[in-house]
């Protein structure tokens, strides 16, 4: 793929994750090695990465995720009434992922080790900017290697329980949950987005 094709066709893959095919850990490590080329504030590289493949661990973490998913739905009464094709497609694929999360062969949990049980006050954008670009780099690299991914965070509604499942120290804070698997089918294409001129400002709002 050209760089432009990679950047415009790396989509959230849910229903097209291949739940029957094992993913070699070396492939995950290769994608993650590429991901770690992302920038890190002051080059601190406080990131830590959990690759969850054990069936019992996946099941336990998936149950935490499903609880967050159900609570999210309860808080979106307006969206539940949205009958647009786009929303219904997203809702259907998200529900499928919640039901099958434990069957995804690899669950990647990117984290920051801040050295403190409490997140520092103030510049949260700067803090998470030292992790999240590496997560996206990983997802791009995975796509280039034939793997599908999707960025999820609903398990963080119960972050402490997820931390207990994963055995995380108090100083380690989760940033996402990235299901990873080979994908089925083809046809990935750019998503519909607002025209750039509708969201672009020069000099002042």
How would you describe this structure to a colleague?
By secondary structure, this protein is α+β, with helices and mostly antiparallel strands. It has a single domain, classed as 3-Layer(aba) Sandwich (NADH Oxidase), CATH 3.40.109. Strands 1, 2, 3, 4 and 5 form a five-stranded antiparallel β-sheet that branches. α3 packs antiparallel against α5 and α3 packs antiparallel against α8. The chain starts with a helix and ends in a 6-residue tail after the last helix.
Pick out the low-confidence regions: none
Q: How much helicity do the residues have?
A: 40-55%
CATH architecture: 3-Layer(aba) Sandwich
The CATH topology label is NADH Oxidase
Count of helical segments?
A: 9
Number of strands: 5
Class in CATH? Alpha Beta
Strand content: 5-15%
Question: Shape, please?
Answer: globular
The CATH H-level homologous superfamily = NADH Oxidase
Radius of gyration: 18 Å
Keywords: Oxidoreductase
Family: Belongs to the nitroreductase family.
Protein name: Nitroreductase family protein
Pfam families: Nitroreductase
Helix/strand layout:
Elements: H1 3-9, H2 25-35, E1 47-52, H3 55-74, H4 77-80, H5 85-100, E2 106-113, H6 124-128, H7 132-144, E3 147-149, H8 159-166, E4 172-174, E5 178-182, H9 196-199
Helix pairs in contact: 2-7, 3-5, 3-8
What are its keywords?
NADH Oxidase; 9 helices; 12% strand; 205 residues
Tell me briefly what this model is.
Belongs to the nitroreductase family. With 205 residues, the protein is an alpha+beta fold. It has one domain (3-199): NADH Oxidase, CATH 3.40.109.
């Amino acid at each position: 793929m050209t760089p432009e094709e990679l950047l415009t066709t790396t989509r959230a893959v849910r229903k097209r994750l291949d739940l029957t095919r094992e993913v070699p850990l070396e492939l995950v490590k290769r994608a993650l090695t590429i991901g770690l080329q992302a920038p890190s504030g002051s080059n601190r590289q406080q990131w830590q990465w959990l690759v969850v493949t054990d069936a019992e661990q996946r099941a336990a973490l998936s149950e935490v995720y499903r609880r967050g998913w159900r609570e999210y739905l309860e808080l979106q009464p307006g969206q539940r009434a949205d009958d647009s094709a786009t929303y219904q497609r997203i809702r259907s694929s998200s529900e499928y992922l919640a039901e099958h999360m434990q069957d995804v062969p690899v669950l990647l949990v990117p984290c920051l080790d801040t050295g403190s049980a409490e997140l520092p006050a103030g510049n949260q954008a700067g803090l998470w900017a030292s992790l999240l670009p590496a997560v996206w780099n990983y997802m791009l690299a995975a796509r280039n290697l034939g793997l599908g991914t999707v960025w999820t965070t609903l398990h963080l509604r119960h972050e402490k329980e997820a931390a207990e499942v994963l055995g995380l120290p108090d100083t380690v804070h989760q940033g996402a949950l990235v299901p990873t698997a080979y994908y089925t089918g083809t046809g990935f294409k750019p998503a519909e987005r607002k025209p750039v001129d509708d969201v672009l400002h020069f000099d002042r709002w």
